[in-house]
Amino acid sequence: MALPTRRDGPFDPPPGLLAAGRAAALRRLVYPDGHLGWLVTGHALGRALLADPRFSARSEHKRVPVPRPGADVFLGRPALPGWFVDMDPPEHARYRRLLAGRFTARRVDTLRPWIGRVADEHLDAMARAGPPADLVAGFALPVPSLVICEILGVPRSERAEVQRNSATLFSLEVSAQESAEAMRALTGRLGELVRLKRRRPGDDLLSELVASDLSDEEITGTGVFLFTAGHETVSSMLSLGSLALLHHPEQRDALIRGQGAPENAAEELLRYLTIFQFGVPRTPVVDVEVEGRVVRAGENVTISLPVANRDPEAYDRPDELDLGRPVRKHLAFGHGVHLCLGQHLARAELQIGYAALFRRFPGLRSAVPLEEVPLAVDSGFYGVHRLPVTW
Length: 391
Description:
By secondary structure, the protein is α+β, with helices and mostly antiparallel strands. The protein has helices at residues 15-23, 43-50, 91-99, 105-129, 135-140, 142-152, 159-170, 176-199, 205-210, 216-246, 249-256, 262-272, 305-308, 343-360, and strands spanning 26-30, 36-40, 55-56, 133-134, 280-284, 288-290, 293-295, 301-303, 365-366, 388-390. The protein has 14 helices and ten strands. The strands form three sheets. The chain has a five-stranded mixed β-sheet with strand order 1-2-8-5-3, covered by helices on one side. Strands 4-10-9 form a three-stranded antiparallel β-sheet. Strands 6-7 form a two-stranded antiparallel ribbon. Strand 6 and strand 7 (293-295) form a beta hairpin. It is globular. The mean pLDDT is 96.
């Protein structure tokens, strides 16, 4: 089968994909180029394969399970310098070791008061402007963008241009040429910043990397990857999670009343709304027996994180949003050596962001019917393009 992508509602994976997952944890999948690979939808199986070193993340092997012309220029060839998400150990570990200290839970905890101030500043600006407002443009996009800019050492004045090119990279609708041009623009601007940091280092991650053994090209690529991954994902979750809470009033009210930990609320929203809508790719480098079947070396495997996080064998009532649910071992951040480097930062931004939003606007509501909210079905990261709200 081809990967089902048509959704019936904004909060659930495509029904055809859910049905496939409930029928079998592993099945054949036909890719857009005709390649016959595999689809993994089971939670336990997904965790196992993500942790299995026989399954490679290298971009030379990767295929996209949906038509995405903009990705053609990057796949089927070695990873771009710094894009360690497309590398296997030991190359992957080389970057992780240099970066891990900036993203530990303890380090992120020191940033929480500042993240809270950034969130409050944007919510205050929304309140001054008055309703209606676009929650994406006014809050969900600028907050994580400013946070990652400050961590990397990217000037705020660069944010709009970098955001624009970042969105192009993840779009399903741009050409390979447009995607390549966006990457050139990003690497060009970040490369200038890296050279500036060599002359005048500051207290930021790019300056820290300048003192490492990475080349300027590797530092630039790392910066581009961290910026694009560090704000697109959190922005999507802030906007889509807020929309879900607006349309699950009992869950929103529980959050406002402080029933249950905000940490758990964020985890449940991550599980319920997993935004990597087309899954993550892996490719075995040797033949591997999986679920009694042989997955041959070179056959692409797509692990559907949204469906794995709805697996009835892993979660009771998986298709319900329940902020009080004890969420364990969801796959929204992946698993194994490629477990999201910025998971602690993303968690902090979501926990702070949801709580601050509904504390500031307890009467927040959607300004348009649910069916009029433009959904980001045209991006690798699912979310909403705009979210008109009032209060």
